Here is the input.
Amino acid sequence: MICRNLSAHRPPVGGHFCWTAGKFLRVVAPLVFLCIHIKKGASVNKNKKTVPMIMERKFSSKKIVALTAYDYSFARLLDTSDLDIILVGDSLAMVSLGLETTLPVTMEEMIIHTRAVNRGCHNALLVADMPFMSYQVSDEQAITNAGRFIQEAGAQAVKLEGGARMAGRIQALTNAEIPVMGHIGLTPQSVNKLGGYRVQGKNYKDARKIKQDARKIQEAGVFAIVLEGIPDDLAGEITQDIKVPTIGIGAGVQCDGQILVLHDLLGLGMDSSPKFVKQYACLGDKVKKAVSSYIQEVRDETFPDEEHSYKSKTHNLKSVSDAPQQ
Ligand code: KIV
Here is the structure.
């Protein structure tokens, strides 16, 4: 029995080369493959923020800072700072696509923009917003679409709007290993039901409901909750009450973090901003000024000047036709 086993490992007479090649494939190749994989693993960006890192911030004094982004260029710029989260918000609909509300933006559009942002986002946690009607129908629909953001677009988590009524959906997503950021209070996808973009939770009944929503989606497994357009004291009470971080937008200073729409912060919007927006720059004016200067210089032929033009080696000839044939 032993002899037979040994002979099975002995090179066949005259077939040493084949035996060596076979042994190489069985023994050495997997080792090489393993080494390449370990090396690849080692090159994983250690600065990349993760969902657990964001959750831990609930217990630290360092606020979570988040912004939206919709394309590669801005994602790259934002990612050079110490930003914690980049959200590819469905505000894309209004900011980048010129739509009236967030409702018409599609999964395909959100996927394209999330992929672009992902290419420039190497440090911040990348969260993709689930567009209207991409998760409302069923758990299966929500898991399929959220899975696309993770698999096809490189998002690390998804965000969806809704309180207690969305708890089951959130649970289904987290059961499928997809981290979910909640969003309650003023939920723009409910604009038709709410009758406009109004501050929510101003009376006790509504405030209690929003607090209940926060508890329910926390139980369902969200890793953080966006609180939008609610009174600051209510946001403070919810922040004290729950164990996952709250991220405010129009919800006062007591939240565990803040988020703003990038174009609002940079002053790139064409319309007036809501009260909670602080413009940290007026880039819109700068863009308009730069474009006017360009138009002027092209028309009066001061651009392109010598500095921005290439010179030909045949400058002493009248025309390229005069050049000797080679
Ligand atoms: O779509 C968005 O931009 C958002 C945030 C501002 C929270 O949902």
Remarks:
- The chain has 13 helices and eight strands.
